[in-house]
Specification:
Layout (H helix, E strand, L loop, with lengths): L1 H16 L1 H5 L7 H29 L1 H20 L4 H29 L5 H27 L4 H22 L12 H24 L4 H23 L13 H31 L4 H7 L1 H21 L1 H19 L8 H28 L6 H34 L2 H7 L4 H6 L6 H45 L1
Length: about 475
């Protein structure tokens, strides 16, 4: 089960390493298409993870888990052999749907398989795989991509997922089913609203912020989110009951979880390109180059609970966002002359913040719901994580593209109107490559500054909401 989690989470991180290869590939993707190649998987993963868990309850967790692994393999194979960008995006969507069926049912199978006294340790081990999966994705993805093709990365996921399916079929127990109706309408509306929102954000730099596609995307997203809310309030078994967000602690913790992954995956998106274009790293060393971020996650998580007991919940959350925001702002000061040691130090600072945030916010979400709704809490955590990841990639991709194009020398910009580094390098003489890289670094730094400030602002809102909630509880108790 843990290997399954590492696979679906690792794919989110690994594909970011392939962005420079994809940009220079025969597919010739635009800047917005590069963002969609990363985000299509993540957004389908985010929006379908709760229906994936509900499907496991209704049709059998083992069966849905197996179906998810096979679907993941089919989508990865389709992506690996894609002759053009639309087919690649369709494959990424199928892979994301498979991941959404896998993730929640791995935990459900585990909890059914272990005795009650081992459930706490089992949940902790399962949860740690989300962090370890990122490490596996970066290191393993870098090793595969060092062979020279982005297609190899996607193809490598096929035999791995099929081997895991065989192991699941052999070892996983069959758990009882529950006759709960699936809210397919709610799931479809949520996917549609999320894709429309990202469409408005991602297409802005190339299509223009006043263009019909961008304005239409934002309007369509608002309408679909409103319809989704009305539908969820009326159905007997909603995908996600909007009334849950009346709980102040749950609302602020979900916002906090979204903000943390917003910052972390925005960093993942530009980190691979920065280390390859800006620092001249190979793709393997690029995968290894993100390890300093994960060191606090791997070794500091067990100490967070003790720190929270000493300084309190609100102070721990505030400290977490301060570290994440400061780390991102520190990384935004890096350029081609910055020693890697300095860059790695800011990665560690960011990792400390993420380490403080994840167990603390997860505890608030779990503690805000009764035990009978523990599954809802797990689904909420997965949804907010993946939605924040997709939003972070979309926003930093948009900011980066706008600044990169603006920072290019006029003669380079006037030629082919490039929107990616690969396009710009392909249309200039080798002697002008440093101008393109300088524009790239400018776009990266601006994007990280925007993300860092946004994380700090969202963190302040989370802490303020938590303080107000605790103040009200104190008055009620008095």
């Amino acid at each position: 089960m843990c290997a399954c989690v590492a696979l679906v989470v690792g794919m989110v991180a690994a594909v970011n390493l392939a962005v420079p290869m994809l940009a220079a590939s025969a597919l010739h993707p635009s800047a917005s298409a590069l963002v969609w190649i990363v985000d299509t998987y993540v957004i389908f993963f985010a929006c379908l993870v709760i229906p994936g868990g509900a499907a496991g309850d209704r049709f059998g967790r083992k069966g849905v888990l197996l179906a998810g692994l096979v679907l993941f393999a089919a989508g990865a194979l389709m992506s690996a052999v894609a002759p053009n960008v639309p087919v690649l995006l369709a494959g990424r969507a199928i892979t994301g749907a498979g991941a959404a069926a896998v993730l929640p049912n791995t935990l459900a199978v585990l909890l059914h398989a272990v005795p009650a006294e081992r459930r706490g340790a089992t949940i902790a081990t399962w949860a740690s795989m989300t962090g370890i999966g990122g490490v596996v994705g970066n290191v393993g993805g870098g090793a595969v991509l060092s062979g020279g093709s982005w297609r190899w990365l996607l193809a490598a996921a096929v035999p791995i997922s099929l081997i895991l399916a065989a192991l699941v079929a052999r070892t996983a127990p069959v758990s009882p089913r529950h006759d709960r109706r699936l809210d397919w309408l709610g799931a479809g509306l949520l996917v549609g609203a999320s894709v429309a929102l990202l469409l408005g954000i991602v297409e802005g730099p190339e299509a223009g912020w006043g263009s019909a596609v961008v304005v239409g995307g934002f309007v369509c997203s608002a309408v679909l989110f409103a319809v989704w809310t009305l539908v969820e309030l009326k159905v007997e078994h909603p995908l996600l009951d909007p009334r849950l967000f009346r709980i102040a602690g749950l609302r602020s913790a979900c916002l906090g979880m979204t903000a943390v992954f917003f910052g972390m995956f925005a960093l993942f998106y530009v980190n691979a390109s920065f280390l390859q274009y800006g620092k001249g790293f190979s793709v393997l060393w690029t995968g290894l180059g993100l390890i300093p971020l994960t060191v606090p996650l791997l070794f500091g998580g067990r100490h967070v609970g003790h720190l929270k007991e000493r300084i309190g919940l609100d102070a721990t959350i505030a400290l977490a966002f301060l570290f994440v925001g400061a780390g991102l702002l520190g990384l935004s000061t890096s350029d081609t002359q910055t020693p890697y040691a300095g860059y790695a130090a800011w990665l560690v600072v960011t990792g400390i913040g993420v380490t403080l945030a994840l167990p603390t916010l997860s505890g608030v979400i779990a503690g805000s719901l009764p035990p009978a709704k523990a599954g809802v809490g797990t689904g909420l955590q997965a949804t907010t994580r993946e939605f924040g990841s997709a939003l972070g990639v979309a926003v930093i991709g948009t900011v980066f593209t706008a600044q990169f194009v603006a920072a290019l020398p006029p003669d380079i910009r006037a030629g082919q109107d490039p929107h990616t580094v690969a396009q710009a390098l392909a249309t200039t003489t080798p002697g002008r490559a440093h101008d393109v890289i300088a524009a790239f670094v400018s776009g990266t730094d601006t994007g990280l500054r925007v993300i860092g400030v946004t994380v700090l602002v969202l963190g302040a809102l989370v802490v303020l909401q938590s303080l107000l909630t605790n103040h009200r509880k104190g008055k009620d108790n008095a």
